Fold this sequence. Notes:
Chain A has 140 residues and is α+β, with helices and mostly antiparallel strands. Chain A is built from 7 helices and 5 strands, in the order H-H-H-H-E-E-E-E-H-H-E-H. Chain A has a 5-stranded antiparallel sheet with strand order 1-2-3-4-5. In chain A, strand 1 and strand 2 form a beta hairpin. Chain A is elongated and about 65 Å long. The model of chain A has no long low-confidence stretch (mean pLDDT 87).
Amino acid sequence: MIGAVWLRAPARARLHALRELYRRFFGENTPDARGRRLLAEWLSPAQRAQFEQHRYFDVIGCDTGRTYRIHYGTAANVHEIDDDGRAMMGWCFVPSGFLVPGDVMLAQKIALETSETAALALANRFPPATHTEHFYRRPF
Amino acid sequence: MATQIVMDRTGDTRHEFDPDNAEALARAERRFRELTGAGFTAALRTGPGEVTQIRSFDPTAHETLFYPRLVGG
C-alpha cells in the first residue's frame, strides 16, 4: 500500500521526502545532537525549560550560592549573574579535548554544582560584555 | 543494565554492562579507574538535575558520566 502510494507520488515529492529523511536521520545522529540530548537528560526540569526557551540555563554554585548562566557554546560561555540576571563576570573553563557544546555545558554545570571553588580556581576571568546575546543565539 | 557514559568528540560513548555479572562489573571498575586515573571526573545523577561527583567505583550506580579534566579557557 505504502509502496503503491510511493510509486504514484511525483518525482519531486519523492525527492523532497528522501531529503527530509536524510536530514532528520543524520541531523539527529550528529555529535552536536547527541551532546544536546545528553545535556537535556541531565538538566533539572527548570533548567531544561530555560535552555529550550533561551539557549542558556542557570546553575547555583555549591560553595558560594552564586548564580551562573551557562550559554550554548564551547568557550567563554559562563557568566556569573546578579539577582536581576545581569552578567557580572565571565568565567572561562572547559573540559580538555574537542567536545561538542552540549557536553561542554554539562561538564560546566556539574563542576559548578559539585566543586565550584576548584572550577573557578582554574578558570580565566573575562569581562561579561565580551560577547553580545546575539553571539550566543546562533542556530544549533 | 548499568551504563558508563564517556564524553568524547563523537558526543559520547556508552559502555553498558550487567552489574550482576562479576566479570562485567570488574571490567567496569577497571574502566572507572583508567578514566579517573587519566584525569576524567566521574559523576552520578542523584535526582532530576541533581548530580554528585564520585571518586571511587560505585557498583550500584545505574549511570555514571565521565568528562575530561577541566582547564582554563
